[in-house]
Amino acid sequence: MRGLYWKIYFSFVLTSVLATLVTLAYAVFYRQLSNETNNLIAPTEGYISSAQLMLQRGGEPLLIEWLITFEQHPNVNAYVFDQQGSNLAGGKVPATVSDYAFSASEFHVKVQPLNRSEILVKAPLTSQEGVFYLLVVEFLHPFAVLDVKSYIALGLLVAIIFFAVVGFILSGYLSRPMRRLQKTVKAIAGGDLSARSGYRLRRRRDEIGDLSREFDVMADRLQTLLADQKGLLRDISHELRSPLARLQIATELARFDANDDAVEYLDRIELETGRINDLIADILLLAKLEVERHPEQWQPIDLVEVIENIVGDAHFEKQADVIQFIHPKVPCFVMAEAKLLSSAFENLIRNALLHTYDHTKVEITIKEIDSDFSIVVRDNGPGVAEEHIQNLTQPFYRAEHSRERVGQNMTQKQAGGRGYGLGMAIAHRVIRSFDGHMAIRNHPQGGLEISCYLNRYF
Q1: What is the largest CA-CA distance in the chain?
Q2: How far apart, in Å, are the Cα atoms of 257 and each of 254, 269, 274?
Q3: How is residue 220 annotated by DSSP?
Q4: CA-CA distance, 84 to 64, in Å (whole number)?
Q5: Residue 257: pLDDT above 60?
């Protein structure tokens, strides 16, 4: 759920929170932006008339009782000042009220929508004895009653929770098709060329539907091309192996009538025929690794056992201990196919044997690194020029001008003949097909070092 999902989610939540802030800000300025202030000022005439009536009938005592009733109004306060400027009801008078009461603005209404005292209205009162008083009616801003900080905090909290839930649902709805398409891409990359985006995506009438339809067309084309390629390689293999088999038979028949001088040439024909057969087998294996991957056929394989078998064969062929194998004293299991894994390490080890100097050994080490096994194959040969290392895993790539094989004998049917640049490529693709990776470098003390990393099977 990374990437697009969270971008959509946080964009939606951020937009919603900003919209909430704008709404709250509009509420603050609402009275100034509308005619609401006129509606609030309208009852003021009634307040003034009531105060004047109370003062006429009962004097200051009745007026004070009337003022006390204003304490029941949460949004309206009333203050009456005598000629000495004292508040008849007593108590503390807000600075904004007293400043307005004794200002020289005569009897103009004061509107200040961002202050605690949103509206201030003042009017003179006269008693029966002719004594003058000043009435000030204060309309409090709603936020002053509600506690603006708590109001905004509560509004934001409710908005974030609400839009977080809605955003979670909406983001999932928008990103689900992309996750479905991503799953299909991974399936195709994993070797399942029949994977498609599905009917539900293809029937969409938007950009995602267009993308899924184009993707399925591309996948169909890719599957057809790879199937044709695989069929072509299979047909070529069959067509080449048939004349090669006849050539081998003809070679053996020619030996019966050949003299000693011709035998050498017949041996060479047999050697080259065998090499072509091996080349065809390697090409077919390489093509198979490119298009096929079957994790369901993997089994726990002991790396130590696989490499020991290869080392034993090498020692038998060389009639000497030419490999130093260091490994843990416990089985090292990985999930793989035994035949392919053995083929990969046999290519690497035999390649190292061909390039190591005489009277030196190929060093093979298995180490545990976190959840992986590291299999390191190192020869003691001339190494490879740095500019060629990154291309060693490419099919048919050879850097023989910088890395001559040691002990080559082109006149004998033995390992050590020039290869075709497929061994390293096959090994690389086999390791990669088992969810591993391979690293190649020149060892600081000389020779080429190839490190293969495979996931450990617990």
Answers
A1: 157
A2: 6, 16, 22
A3: H
A4: 16
A5: yes
Mean pLDDT of 416-441: 78
* DSSP character string of 433-444: HTT-EEEEEE-T
Dist CA 285 CA 289 (whole Å): 6
First to last CA, the chain: 28
Q: What is the pTM of this model?
A: 0.49
- Written as six digits, the tokens of 158 are 């409710």
Summarize the confidence of residues 449-458 as an average pLDDT: 88
Mean pLDDT computed over every residue of the chain: 79
3-state secondary structure 144-181: HHHCHHHHHHHHHHHHHHHHHHHHHHHHHHHHHHHHHH
Which one-letter amino acid corresponds to residue 2?
R
CA distances from 25 to 28, 69, 142, 153, 258 (A): 5, 33, 13, 13, 106
Cβ neighbours of 63 (radius 10 Å): 26
Give CA–CA dist 156/190, Å, rounded. Answer: 46
Tell me, rounded to whole angstroms, the distance of Cα 57 from its chain centroid: 81
Q: Which residues contact 81 (CB under 8 A, 6 or more apart)?
A: 87, 88, 101, 133, 134, 136
Alpha-carbon gap, residue 351 to 384, rounded angstroms: 13
Q: 80-125 pLDDT, tens per residue?
A: 888 888 888 888 888 888 888 888 767 777 877 667 777 888 888 8
Complete domains list, the chain, with CATH: 4-32+149-178 (no CATH), 35-146 (3.30.450.160), 220-293 (1.10.287.130), 295-455 (3.30.565.10)
What pLDDT, on a 0 to 100 scale, did the predictor assign at position 1?
A: 45
User: Tokens at residue 143, please?
Assistant: 């936020």
**Dist. CA 415–CA 152, nearest whole Å:** 82
Strand, coil or helix: 439: strand
